[in-house]
Amino acid sequence: MKNERRVRQRLLNKLYDAGYESETLIKEMDVYEFMKLPNIALADINTFLELQLAIKRNKVVSFLAGMKLELSRKGKTKVDEQ
Fold it and tell me: pTM higher than 0.85 for the full model?
């Protein structure tokens, strides 16, 4: 879980360095725009999508703590520890 937290923090740092300094800007960003950022790997896409989900569901602290967010069938967020 510590490694996951580090990966997520690095992703946030990349977004902030590129000028995406608010939840609104990150939430509205699409994957193609995200992939144009410098130093982004294909592996970062999943983490980026999880971050967007966390923002939409008001679960950013859970995301940063390394918890996995999943959508249930009814559209509610399920939070599981990794």
Answer: no
